[in-house]
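User: Structure please.
Assistant: Input sequence and predicted structure:
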Amino acid sequence: MKILIIDGQGGGIGKQLVSAIHKSCPKVVITVVGTNSVATSAMLKAGADNAATGENAVLVGCRHADVIMGPIGIVIADAMFGEITPSMALAVGQSKAVRVLIPVKHCDNIIAGVSDQAMSKIIENAVMQIKAL
């Protein structure tokens, strides 16, 4: 299984996803794409198999992934303080990959029905979803 993790800003959510997935599903191939070099570096240090940075890397990665993971903002144009371009959001949304999105209430996006949980619990649940696939 090929997993694409997309994250921006400091890459903290992506870093946690990479680490947790490698522990629970060591045979999957994890490719990470940061919207900036800081995010990419953080995810790469966490143990990603492949890494790239920027809009075109998101577009290409979405075409090859079986699963796409990241904060919910990766499907919202101009989210993450503008780091997600309309083309990136479209590529994620139109991909044939399964999307496992992390509910994050930032950048003026409110997710109704989602309770406040520790990020560690949300990551744990996301990894369970991957294992189920």
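Residues 2 and 64 are 8 Å apart (CA to CA).
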